[in-house]
Amino acid sequence: MKWKLLPKAGRPPFSLFDDRKVFESWKRRAIEHLRTPPSSDWDWLAIAQHHGLATRLLDWTTNPLNAAYFAVREVRKADAVVYAARFKWRVDPEAVSPMDFSDVAKFWPLGVVPRIARQAGLFTVHGKPDIPLEEYSEGLVALTEIVIPKKARDLLLRELSYYGINAASLFPDLDGLSTFLNWTMESREYWKLEIDETAQHKS
Questions:
Q1: Is 92 within 8 Å of 106 (Cβ atoms)?
Q2: N or C: which end of the chain has fewer CB within 10 A?
């Protein structure tokens, strides 16, 4: 199954609702959970995206190894895909509201969430969330699809971990650490290494 490059707000069932109204409702409730309110709607939107709200932002990273990790981290019997893109425009948060931007462009968030910085994260903002990225003719310069065969998923995930790309490094909190340690037990990735080292010491 091939997924279209749509932000979550552009996918069913979220596309049936006005994401502007949902975003305003989220802000009214979210403020009680924040020590310092964000200074702009762009920061608000980045935080909302980070915490799973269906927004008109689409996640990207400038680090291709991070992109590979996110492509293969889930256990699936299917090929994985990494997209590389070049965009014509970069949003100036001082010049326009995220809800008034009509095309597609890069948005570099401030370090409002530690995970965004650790993941070398950035977003694209989509003026029409229900239109696939491939169909934007103005703001998109180039788009390349890189397919990772399903038989390579597990090996690639293990190799990325040896290079320091794993849940513990990309999610710098207790959730990330727990996910990483659970993975090491489930996959037994580091067990063999420890057994081999113990055998060498005994010999």
A1: no
A2: N
